[in-house]
Amino acid sequence: MKTRLFCCLAVLVAAPAAFAQKLLVVSEKGGPQVVRAITMGTSMVEKDGKLVSTSGTEYALGKAAIYGRGFVKLTNVAVKENRIEDLAKGTETIFGNDLDATISSDTPLKHCFFVWEINTDLDHLPSAIEMRDLIPGEAQKIRISVALQAHLAEGESHSKLHVFSDGLEILNSTMDPAYIAEQTRKTEEFQLKRVPDRPVGISRAVPPAVPVFPADLKAQGVGGSAKVSCTIDDHGNVVDVKVVEATHPSFGESLAAAAKQWKFEPAVKDHQYVQATAVIPYTFKVAAAEAK
Fold this sequence. Notes:
By secondary structure, this protein is mainly β. The chain has 2 domains: 7-192, no CATH class; 201-291, TolA/TonB C-terminal domain, CATH 3.30.2420. 14% of the residues lie in helices and 43% in strands. The strands form 7 sheets. It has a 4-stranded mixed sheet with strand order 11-8-7-14, with no helix packed on it. A 4-stranded antiparallel sheet has the order 10-9-12-13, with no helix packed on it. A 3-stranded antiparallel sheet has the order 2-1-6. The N and C termini lie far apart (64 Å).
């Protein structure tokens, strides 16, 4: 996507915090609009509750007012540069740069796109590409290519990477831990003002691990049940599991092992996420053919 910075958004770029999250904005007739997605190389903005394509061609990065809760990890990041002589302009040299990376997320993210922000003496642009939706546990390889007027010297800090979901930049897990904690707190405060009290519940975003039927009992055609008590912290993580009851010790051990891998939606009380306990029952059923 060809981009160039437009001066009317210059004030948005000056973020007070080094890692302040960003929005990608595009110039429109009615003023700057937040890019919510990129589809088939076209930027999409929201109008009347729907995503529509924009005719704007000038882009800039602005400061976000709220923060995404998902975290993404970028690995295997590599930049390759190719020097291109522009014969049409005589002596001018264009540097073709390819950035390759692998990206993964801990939560489902939709309307994703990737932005490579570059600042050199001759270049100041955010270049963006469309990405597939991110699915927890599934890595995705991406590539973005740009042509620059100046050489990207190795080790210089004029190149930054951003990942967006539905218009909001998602915190990168390699950012400073103190910054992550502070922005997470701000997000929770903003979101929880609109959330009523609720009990803890299994997360719909991450399918729960299925307890393994003990091989010896399965071979004997013996079914049964078990029940475990899970302590879930205010982030939805299981911090403790205890077997409450089981028709056979192996059923309790199997259910407990699976429960330790589960992800929960944390309980909410008085507009705060709180630690809570959930008692989970499970039945180990023997198939009819195996019971004979």
